[in-house]
Amino acid sequence: MPTGTEIIAFFEQYYTDYGYPLVLLFSILETIFGISWQLPGTFIVILATFYARQGTLYLPYVLVLAMIGWFIGDNINYFLGKYGWYRFFFWLGMKEGLKKGEGWMKKHGNIALFLGHAIPAFATFVSTAAGVLGMNYKRYLIFISLSIVFWVMIWGPVGYLLGDYRREVEIVVGFFAWPTALIILGWFIYKIVKIFSQGIRKMSFKDWVFVVVGGLIITWTAWNILH
Predict the structure, then answer these.
(1) 52 lies in a domain?
(2) Does 12 map to a domain?
(3) Is residue 64 predicted with pLDDT exceeding 90?
(4) Is 86 among the domain residues?
(5) Domain region containing 23
(6) Distances from the Cα of 101 to the Cα of 35, 78, 152, 214, angstroms
(7) How far apart are CA 215 and CA 2, in angstroms?
(8) Domain count for the chain
(9) Per-residue pLDDT tens for 74-101?
(10) CA of residue 79 relative to chain centroid, distance
(11) Cα separations in angstroms, 51 against 57, 93, 163, 195, 201
């Protein structure tokens, strides 16, 4: 299992080579309805601000790209909702989340849009619901823009401030690497076994996606534990 120092250095190399594209891409994908829960977009951005403190990236660029990514993703969600394309993602089990998003929008309106971005994955349901409910597009743009700027400025400095304590971060990462890896392995194995126990013929498209992605994660995690 790699040490905390090796893990931080490993990701630093990727950020050195692909940092800005990674921030933009994962910021977009994390906010798109149907796939947001499978991607650690906020973590990618926070880690980018951490490396910005090390001089690997430039903090203002990281924050602006995160804002652009969230903005693009939110607009995709709005039109998915407005034109009904979101129904495709019901196959992935997203119907309940969208219903909750509609409920939040009906009850809280603009406040739901603003607070939803505290966690971008939640914002996917709210922004899609805004399209489903036919919210005025100009008003929608104003509130998501204010929300995005506010929450990026809240989350962004977290990693940057931690950058002053790199050695301490390496120690913490190294300490939690083993238990985290074992928890990830155990959880994915449990979920995959549970999916197969219901019978292959009853497996949904969502189940197959989880099995494939989970299998890759199990393989990668096990490889890192053994090396």
Answers:
(1) yes
(2) yes
(3) yes
(4) yes
(5) 4-174
(6) 16, 12, 21, 27
(7) 21
(8) 1
(9) 888 888 888 877 666 565 555 666 666 6
(10) 20
(11) 6, 36, 7, 38, 46
